[in-house]
Amino acid sequence: VILRIASPFTALGILWLNLLTDGLPAMALAVDPGDPSIMKRKPRGKGGSMLHEILLFAIVGGILAFIATILLFAFNYPYNVVDPIAYEMGLNRARTIALTTSVVFELAVVFVTRAPEGKSVWLHTPVNNKYLLLAVGIALGLQLFIIYEPDAANVFDLVPIGWVDWLWIIGVVLSCMVVL
């Protein structure tokens, strides 16, 4: 609204994002093996809160996700396109990139959040929860399906994106994961 451009997400896109990134990965995390060093940590103080420990992570993660999505959307937005059909195709491409960026970001952040406290996500093996890998794989597969299957893409107002777009999405998301 501030930039006077269309929204990066449709209502259906927001519902899809929530369903895809919160459903399967959350169920897979329920069977995640616990941190073996948990009993070596000092207890929280009387006024301590779990939320206090993750608040900064949640704020930074949200800001990074927002910036990544908006930058890629704005970079691909069809500014100054006057032909309505070309504008709609360009807008749908920008929305596809924004939605895919958000999906990939949310699916990647699940691996950052499960790394044991004080250990780098890059040193923590993600394969000790095969259900999580399966859930993320299925979620990515479903995202690919709604982008590249023409009828599904039409329902979501998405268009196929190329490998250069994927490189941008993966590069931006990986950069954010390094920060997190």
Description:
The chain is an all-alpha fold. Helices cover 66% and strands 0% of the residues. It has helices at residues 11-22, 24-29, 50-76, 84-113, 130-148, 150-156, 163-179. Helix 1 runs parallel beside helix 4 (84-113).
Quickly describe the structure:
The chain is mainly α.
Q: How are the secondary structure elements laid out?
A:
Blueprint: H1 11-22, H2 24-29, H3 50-76, H4 84-113, H5 130-148, H6 150-156, H7 163-179
Helix pairs in contact: 1-4, 3-4, 3-7, 4-5, 4-7, 5-6
List descriptors.
mainly alpha; 7 helices
Helix content: 55-70%
| Nearest-integer average pLDDT | 86
What structural class do helix, strand and pairing data support? mainly alpha
Run of helices and strands: HHHHHHH
The largest pleated sheet is described as: none
Low-confidence stretches: none
Number of helices: 7
Our Rg estimate from Cα atoms comes to 19 Å
Q: Give the N-to-C terminal Cα separation.
A: 28 Å
- Rough outline: elongated
Beta fraction: under 5%
